[in-house]
Amino acid sequence: METNKILELVKKAEDKVNSTMLSNIRKTEINLILLEIQKEAINYSQCCTQLLCVDKWCYNNLTKGKKYKLITEDKEYYTIVDDCGEICQRDKDLFKLIKQ
In degrees to the nearest 10, what's the CA dihedral of 34, 41, 3, 57? Predict the structure, then answer.
């Protein structure tokens, strides 16, 4: 299964969890498990494209000069795992593509 498909399924599960009548503690526990699944999916992906951060703007969770693994991209944004371990979308202007 592709990483993008796994991330899409995890997002659907997160949305479902957040829309149910569970306690906040249970929702947090389930969302933490889903976050672990996302990270594992990214680690197992066969992606060979990396991004070099060339400008971090105001983001404290990016390091200029550091390489980040490209997860997905759309017209304006790259999806990466930032320095805090969070999956996030950042503007393409912040990165230079590095093919390996």
Answer: 80
